[in-house]
Amino acid sequence: MYNESTTLMLSKGIYDRPPMLNYPKHVEYIQEESIFSGYLSKKRSLSALELTEIFLNIERNYFGLLICMGFTQVVKDEEIKRYLLNGKRICEKQIQILNKILIDEGHLGTVPVTMQVTDSKVSPFSDKLIVFLFHTLNSLDITLIGHGLSMSMRTDLSTIFSRLIGEILVYGKEGFDIMVKRRWLEQPPQ
Question: What percent of the chain is helix, strand and coil (3-state, nearest 5)?
Fold first, then answer.
């Protein structure tokens, strides 16, 4: 069933393929510390783990971009709309940064499957729930980029992932401030 659904999605052009690596012909062992490369020394090729993390972060940011676009058109509050537009800008920026890494490494980069946001102006959720959703997604995003950071042994990638986390923390604070100001955030048990 998986193969049939993948074949169907490929034929319709709605399946986004991750970058591919050739299967190794033999086992190689690390001989020196060159696995930790990047800014301080000549860069080595991306490992399969690093490539996977970059691809998954691009995919997640693309879905975040769609969520931002959809909720921006239904939210009436201008402060929340600015917050969501800022999130959209961050998603676009992170997609661009991560795609540049792939392209610089000789991969085609990834072009997420084209999905459309409906033109509905009726919000399916309250503003409070939308901001809380973004607060939760920011926490998840920090966790997942942190996972990418932990899998990366190239110093340039570690720096990029750290910078992305910092940007999300600043953005998360913006949403946190909106919730606190409007008394939408309960104090967790102490």
Answer: 60, 0, 35
